[in-house]
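Appendix B. Raw example, untouched.
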Amino acid sequence: MRTIPVLALSLLLTCSCAMPASASKDLDALRRFSQVMDLVERHYVTETKREDLINGAIKGMLENLDAHSTYMNAQEYKEMQETTSGEFFGIGIEITMENNTVKVVTPIEDTPAYKAGLKAGDSILAIDGKPAMEISLQEVVSRIRGPKGTEVVLTILHAGAAEPKKVAIVRDAIPLVSVKSRKLEDGYYWIRLTRFSEKTTQDLKDAVRAAQKESKGGIKGLVLDLRNNPGGLLDQAVGVSDVFLNEGKIVSIRGREEDSERVFRATRDSGDLISQPMVALVNAGSASASEIVAGALRDQKRALILGERTFGKGSVQNIIPMADGSALKLTIARYYTPSGVSIQAEGITPDIEVPFEAPARDQEDSPYLTVREKDLDRHLKGDAEKRGTGREDRKARDGHQEAREQLARDNQLRMALQFVKNMPRLKAILQ
């Protein structure tokens, strides 16, 4: 029998047991992490808990990936779930982290933040005196939230301002009503989506059906308002788009693998709900799910997009629950409009760019605020009112007055209405 020298056997054993270079590097990294944690536990100026160190390390790992990936402890995860499925208490803003600065994506309408004058693009420098850049984005959210009736003081730097200012805001219940509707003129309606929560698609369908029932001659045109809508659930963005589309692609998402594309398409059953002319309003506060809807309606030539360039959030996050009640929010894909364009950091460019013009304080001469005799409080009653129909007439007049006031305040909405009304004629000319 042939014998193998001891030295040669030793070399063979060494080669067969050696680890791949990548595995060795992984072990080195884990060893370094363990050493650092041990040094902190033994020598840091105050006593630390290992669980806090590990949680902090996980947060840092995820937040180093992008602005939307993060780790949520059990309480933070619960708060996140409440924002899409139930009532919660806070001030009503959507925020993001940009260049280590907390930025307001948009204030939610009719909330304390909205009433306090916070606007898209504002920077939040501190919460109750604590610098916002020293904590994670999720911790910022948790600090801004709190019991109803309590106060939080934000140090805000408005876009374009030279100096920050402190804004005291009293927390309140944040309503999750995501769909608002109003008749602008006979047959022409404004439908506003404030966010994309669990019931948005159904609420939109209800609003459209109510408008169809109210309008005697049927709906002639629709303005879909997506301004300052921070987004929300992907399936609701698809559902909302499907309400207006009969067929075709709505959005596609692609992960890291080449064959990971998932395509969402319109279904004929939903798209026949309304086929009248549409204009969609967008601005810098329109983000994520709002951009999916705007991109689908634009690329499918279903609606004219009017307003200002959108926020530019073109990534998809997945919520991954952990065994201890915490969760990871991890960016897993980018989304693409039907034409195959990613809007990540680019946004949706409107077909017609119209900057918003703040209304003048004195609007007494506005043609949209006409006051007539019948609008005065102690006016002499007309025959219709004497016959008992005055109450209904008054209610209708109140609605018309609110619509006129809204149009007077909002130049983008006024232009959108004009385009909707003239779309049939424009199409006939172009054909």
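End of appendix B.
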